[in-house]
């Protein structure tokens, strides 16, 4: 059964019917479609197309379908309807009879699908916002737990300067905070209702579209029907937000995979989120993190797919646009699952304090401190940098840490260096010094945690 038989003499080809159908994936829009249809029935009543009785009967029928679907969404899949709009309309007519045929007055599947999709995005954005908040909370809890655990900070994957695990956590809070803000911003532009745009040029019935928009929980109605049915910018924005956030998640995963490597050994991951090898009994692999890292590519591909889909597509609706859904649904589910999984991994992490400290001590990550020491003694930084470089070279040649050089060895390069140099180059001293905003000092970290806890409403 379809919604458009009248103009056709011949039956649809079987292969075409299957090729054309979207029910197998757009059935997940059922609740949104019914919600929008009930609102549409009110609008039709208010403009005089439906009597109160007819509207009530339609609403009752739709509510019945809604409950049926709620109980068993997969039942929809048994039908051979073209899409979710057809399924609901056809089943409504089956349920309440001829009156059901009035519901589609002044409406097109073009504004219907745009409305359903926006409603679906809005619902899912709420879930994602919540997940982004929860993940930030987990980072703050981990930051609080590991205030004094020193780890090496890297540039070029070479030990650069010591930091703390807390500080590393706070870096990710910043990233997921931006993701949260970006998503809220996406929501702002998305939150405008296309319903009542008709096929492309507006509805021929005098519908109060602003009122209709508010009744659906949108902030307002769109300005131009031609744009409204063509627009999928909100999907691009949502998938761009998803891609950026997945990029953050993949960097988080990569950091932890490295921290967990046999070479670094800074952390131990919980048995509950790792897996074994079928051959090598000693293995405990960070699958959860590798999968997040891998799934990032899947979300990127959904962004590229919608961008390419819409490129040079003429206004207004074209069936190409049916291809916007599967990758969107998949990407949003993947993003949310990855956020949940990242939180779970972090929650169960165990740090190896001693190995982290020893690694931070290696690699001359306190070389900058020698230069800063000399600057304090009146040497210009560029000169101080050169002298410190020479001292590092000497230490490398002797296979020693800077702290293990004799004072006389330091003084060979500059006689302003005194015994207090040793206090200046401890890891603790390196960290303590970085007191200005955004620095790694304990005070700054504690202040940041305090602020974030207030923002995130954690007692
Ligand atoms: N299944 C279609 C889609 O997902 C719904 C809109 C169909 N509109 C049309 N004029 N054929 O895009």
| CATH topology call of the largest domain | Fumarase C, Chain A, domain 2
Structural class: mainly alpha
CATH architecture of the largest domain: Up-down Bundle
Spatial strand sequence of the major β-sheet: 1-2
Helical run tally? 19
The kinds of small molecule bound in this structure are: arginine
In CATH, what is the homologous superfamily of the largest domain? Fumarase/aspartase (Central domain)
Mean pLDDT: 94
Low-confidence stretches are: none
CATH class of the largest domain: Mainly Alpha
Main β-sheet description: 2 strands, antiparallel
Rg of Cα set:
30 Å
Helicity level: 55-70%
What series of H and E elements makes up the topology? HHHHHHEEHEHEHHEHHEHHHHHHH
Give the structure's gist in a few sentences.
With 459 residues, the chain is mainly alpha-helical. It is built from 19 helices and 6 strands.
Mind sketching the topology for me?
Blueprint: H1 14-20, H2 23-26, H3 30-46, H4 52-71, H5 84-96, H6 109-145, E1 150-155, E2 158-164, H7 165-190, E3 192-193, H8 209-215, E4 220-221, H9 225-230, H10 233-260, E5 267-268, H11 287-310, H12 325-347, E6 350-351, H13 353-361, H14 367-376, H15 381-397, H16 407-411, H17 421-424, H18 427-432, H19 442-455
Parallel strand pairs: 3-4
Antiparallel strand pairs: 1-2, 5-6
The site of arginine has 10 residues, from helix 6.
Can you describe this structure?
The protein is mostly helical and 459 residues long. It has 3 domains: 14-105, Fumarase C, Chain B, domain 1; 110-359, Fumarase/aspartase (Central domain) (Fumarase C, Chain A, domain 2), CATH 1.20.200; 363-448, Orthogonal Bundle (Ribonucleotide Reductase Protein R1, domain 1). Helix content is 60%, strand content 5%. The chain has helices spanning 14-20, 23-26, 30-46, 52-71, 84-96, 109-145, 165-190, 209-215, 225-230, 233-260, 287-310, 325-347, 353-361, 367-376, 381-397, 407-411, 421-424, 427-432, 442-455, and strands at 150-155, 158-164, 192-193, 220-221, 267-268, 350-351. Strands 1-2 form a two-stranded antiparallel ribbon. Strand 3, helix 8 and strand 4 (220-221) form a beta-alpha-beta unit. Helix 3 (30-46) packs antiparallel against helix 4 (52-71) and helix 10 (233-260) runs parallel beside helix 12. The longest helix has 37 residues, at 109-145. The mean pLDDT is 94. Bound molecules: arginine. The site of arginine has 10 residues, from helix 6.
């Amino acid at each position: 059964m379809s919604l458009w038989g009248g103009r056709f003499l011949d039956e649809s080809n079987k292969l075409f019917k299957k090729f054309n159908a979207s029910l197998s994936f757009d059935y997940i829009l059922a609740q949104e479609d019914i919600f929008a249809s009930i609102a549409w029935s009110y609008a039709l009543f208010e403009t005089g197309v439906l009597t109160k009785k007819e509207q009530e009967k339609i609403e009752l029928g739709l509510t019945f379908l809604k409950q049926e679907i709620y109980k068993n969404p997969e039942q929809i899949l048994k039908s051979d309807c073209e899409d979710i709009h057809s399924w609901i309309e056809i089943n409504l007519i089956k349920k309440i009879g001829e009156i059901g045929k009035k519901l589609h007055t002044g409406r097109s599947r073009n504004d219907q699908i745009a409305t359903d999709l926006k409603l679906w995005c809005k619902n899912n954005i709420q879930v994602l916002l919540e997940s982004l908040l929860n993940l930030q909370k987990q980072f703050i809890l981990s930051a609080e737990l590991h205030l004094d655990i020193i780890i090496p900070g890297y540039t070029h994957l070479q030990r650069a300067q010591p930091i703390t695990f807390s500080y590393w956590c706070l870096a990710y809070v910043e990233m997921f905070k931006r993701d949260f803000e970006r998503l809220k911003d996406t929501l702002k532009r998305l939150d405008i209702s296309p319903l009542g745009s008709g096929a492309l040029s507006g509805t021929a019935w005098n519908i109060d579209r602003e009122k209709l928009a508010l009744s659906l929980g949108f902030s307002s109605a769109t300005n131009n029907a031609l744009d409204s049915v063509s627009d999928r910018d909100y999907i691009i924005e949502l998938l761009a937000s998803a891609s950026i956030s997945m990029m953050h998640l993949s960097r988080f995963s990569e950091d932890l995979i490295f921290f967990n490597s046999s070479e670094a050994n800074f952390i131990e991951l919980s048995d509950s989120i790792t897996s074994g090898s079928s051959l090598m009994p000693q293995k405990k692999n960070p699958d959860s993190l590798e999968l997040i890292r891998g799934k990032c590519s899947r979300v990127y591909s959904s962004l590229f797919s919608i961008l390419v889909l819409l490129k040079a597509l003429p206004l207004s609706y074209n069936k190409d646009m049916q291809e916007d859904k599967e990758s969107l649904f998949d990407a949003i589910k993947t993003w949310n699952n990855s956020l949940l999984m990242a939180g779970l991994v972090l929650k169960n992490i165990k740090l190896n304090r001693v190995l982290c400290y020893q690694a931070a001590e290696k690699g001359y990550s306190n070389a900058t401190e020698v230069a800063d020491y000399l600057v304090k003694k009146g040497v210009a930084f560029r000169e101080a940098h050169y002298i410190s470089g020479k001292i590092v070279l000497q230490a490398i040649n002797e296979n020693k840490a800077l702290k293990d050089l004799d004072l006389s060895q330091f003084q060979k390069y500059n006689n302003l260096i005194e015994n207090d140099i040793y206090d200046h180059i401890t890891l603790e001293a390196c960290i303590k010094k970085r007191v200005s905003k955004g620095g790694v000092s304990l005070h700054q970290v504690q202040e940041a945690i305090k602020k974030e806890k207030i923002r995130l409403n954690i007692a």
